[in-house]
Amino acid sequence: MLPSADDPLTVLIVSDDPLARGGLQAMLRAVHGIEIAGAAPSNLPLPHPRPDAMLWDLGPASGTAGEPEGVGELPTLALVSGASAARTARAAGALGVVGRALEADRLIAALIAVSTGLTVIAPELTEDLLSEDRSIDDVGLEPLTGREQEVLALMAEGLANRDVAMALEISESTAKFHVRSILSKLGAATRTEAVVRAMRGGLLEL
Description:
This protein is of the alpha/beta class. Helix content is 43%, strand content 14%.
């Protein structure tokens, strides 16, 4: 669901570069339905109440600062300038990884997608990130059926069981069965974890 003035998406901006923090604040302030929960260096604690999502800038200034509090707990979109920073962000738990030079409208779309639990990886970073992960065979996961692959792709789009059922013209109980089977085969506790594991295993590209 898209954020709105009545139900805004609260975002914490984390960057060790004051200019980057200022630029990101200015960009997000202009977006209807997004509310800035704060803008801070990576060594500060999370604000209270906790924001809905984090926009984490891994610019040159972040090289020695370490990961900010809340990555892996909050849906996090990381802005990176290369494969090394992308690997750092993913290892820390960021759901999304995109380039720092990404256009504003695409960055905002990626942030909203991540806030709903979707994994977003810039195409130019996908191959490098997947090469760092173990293959699906290495972790002993069972292969998915053709129907399960279809369900998984719809799960990655954020569709609920009812919407999956409608899209595939199956019953909702059948959709639930396929989702449970996917979670079991991928060794995942949640739908988001299943999508992440499928991405890492090369079963899914967004």
